[in-house]
Design brief:
Shape: globular
Number of helices: 10
CATH superfamily: PAC-like subunit
Structural class: alpha/beta
Largest sheet: 8 strands, mixed
CATH class: Alpha Beta
CATH topology: Rossmann fold
Radius of gyration: 20 Å
Distance between the termini: 61 Å
Strand content: 15-25%
CATH architecture: 3-Layer(aba) Sandwich
Strand order of the largest sheet: 3-5-8-9-4-10-12-11
Number of domains: 1
Number of strands: 12
Length: 346
């Protein structure tokens, strides 16, 4: 028996473990004791990240992996990679499993669900540093994958179908972008939503960007089309260190998520890794006067933005400049990662 997507087309690519069913209603409908004052993000939340175009410094995917390690979740739906990926672009990798056996790992996307949905989890003191806690833990679902190479509409429809089957009440999309920001300052996280209710509840802005987009925007549009509210969180990663993962940006996304959902996520090694990341860049700049001067310029610009007199639109404008730069290829080498040494540009 074939599954059907949110668009109503028969598909065979998704492998649901949940089983196909009609979307179970909102949190209030599932739980009559929930008051009418409940917020959008008090229900079942799907946190989404995709490797690739939307994942500068691996910050978004790294944040969701940190969540997966801290939550008691299991995979409930997967995408057949044969249908959506170009394996010459996203190649399978060989990795050893827990028993030492080498196995192929294929690019794809996986939906994870809590083992005990809707149940608050407060871990025992001796394991608290490894497990997330809070009322939102039992409502956190995850979607972690790789941006597809083709058939984006069908790919998105399959995943939206899985979200409907799981009774998802809202979606939080995590992204990270290369930006003209210094590594020495706190990582900025820009929040936006196309949903009027989300904007009113959280006080975030509506995005005004027009131009090329990644799979996150396509997924957000599809979710809103079937009545699932969405919120986008984008971290700004210094574009002069694009070749390495940014634990500082991962940490910033997790901290922002904690402000929206009642969940406390253990940091693990992220704090120490963030400090080491920053120190490593400091060491590089100490040996390069041009790089140090360039970073100082970025620091001055950032401090101006952060001043009390600055407009709240400054970060949003930087976000739009980044997307336009990614869309037309300016300032990068054709792979969207940015120039290696921007401080040497003439």
């Amino acid at each position: 028996m074939s599954n059907r997507t949110a668009e109503g087309n028969a598909v065979t690519g998704i492998q649901p473990i949940l089983g196909r069913r009609v979307r179970p209603g909102t949190e209030r409908e599932r739980n009559p004791s929930v008051s009418n004052d409940s917020r959008i993000f008090d229900g079942r939340i799907l946190v989404v990240a995709f490797e690739g175009w939307n994942d500068a410094g691996e910050a978004a995917s790294g944040a969701v992996r940190t969540l997966k390690d801290a939550l008691d979740v299991v995979p409930v739906a997967t995408i057949d990679p044969e249908l959506y990926y170009d394996f010459q672009f996203n190649r399978p990798t060989l990795a050893a499993d827990e028993e030492g056996q080498r196995r192929l790992e294929w690019p794809g996307s996986v939906v994870y669900a809590p083992v005990s949905p809707g149940i608050r989890i407060d871990p025992l003191e001796d394991v608290a540093e490894y497990h997330a806690s809070g009322t939102g833990v039992g409502n956190l679902f995850l979607l972690l994958g790789t941006e597809p190479s083709r058939s984006w509409k069908a790919f998105t429809a399959e995943l939206i179908d899985a979200a409907l089957a799981a009774g998802i009440d809202a979606v939080v999309l995590l992204g990270s972008m290369l930006a003209d920001v210094p590594h020495t300052r706190p990582i900025s996280v820009h929040s936006s939503s196309e949903n009027q209710q989300v904007r009113a509840e959280l006080g975030v802005e509506r995005p005004t960007y027009e131009g090329p987009v990644g799979i996150l925007s396509v997924f957000a549009d599809a979710a809103e089309a079937v009545g699932i509210p969405t919120l986008s969180l984008w971290a700004s990663v210094p574009h002069y260190v694009h070749n390495s993962p940014s634990p500082k940006a991962m940490l910033a996304l997790i901290e922002k998520l904690e402000q929206i959902i009642d969940v406390t996520v253990p940091r693990g090694d992220l704090v120490a890794d963030s400090a080491a990341w920053e120190s490593g860049i400091d060491a590089l700049a100490a040996d390069d006067e041009d790089m140090a001067a360039y970073i100082e310029q970025l620091e001055q610009a950032r401090d101006t933005v952060d001043s009390p007199e600055a407009s709240g639109e400054a970060i949003a404008q930087e976000f739009e400049r980044y997307l336009r730069r990614r869309g037309d290829g300016r300032g990068d080498k054709g792979d969207g990662r940015g120039p290696d040494e921007p401080w040497r540009r003439e």
